[in-house]
Amino acid sequence: MGRRTLERALEAVAGFDDPRVELEQYPTPAPLAAHLVHLAGLRGDLDTVLDLGCGTGMLAFGAALAGAHRVVGVDCDPEALAVARDNATRLDCGSVAWVLGDATRPPCCPGDAVTVLTNPPFGAQRGNRHADRAFLASASDLATVSYSIHNAGSRAFVESFVADAGGTVTDAFAAEFDLDRQFDFHTEARRTIETEVYRVEWR
């Protein structure tokens, strides 16, 4: 499936019914998800895919629609997973398995040659700084390859963490992340933030 076709399909993925600010539940934009998954496909990384902190399923559906053989989405919020299951019906994509659990301590052992996809919390909320570190730690334990989205300016942190864990950053690129207003403290109907996407080889 081409990137544009994948993006159009992912536009049907519904976001959170009642997003939780403490979990920084912001849906991954369809264009960014399609770009990330398309790159993973070009690199041959869509075999067994684990979407950590899958929310309503954007990256998991992207991987499944792009031809991944096995896709598992993990999230700690049962309401988000309920929306993900509804999205599976809407997209006619019932091949994704959903697991309720902490993505930083995932209750699964997917085996060899696993690719982790994740849009972790950026740590923007008070008391949640470096929340993405725990997601990278999970990826280092579980994955041969990971793709993760981080706030702009994260390169030094990501490269240092990955090097300490014995991995290698192979790809990094900037990406725009469109945010619709969903919390009371948002003052604009929509804003665009700058993010960075990293591909890491862990072993």
UniProtKB/TrEMBL annotation:
PANTHER family in the record: RRNA N6-ADENOSINE-METHYLTRANSFERASE METTL5
InterPro entries: Methyltransf_25, rRNA_MeTrfase/Polyamine_Synth, SAM-dependent_MTases_sf
Residue intervals of the Methyltransferase domain: 49-111
GO molecular function: transferase activity
Stated name of the protein: METTL5 family protein
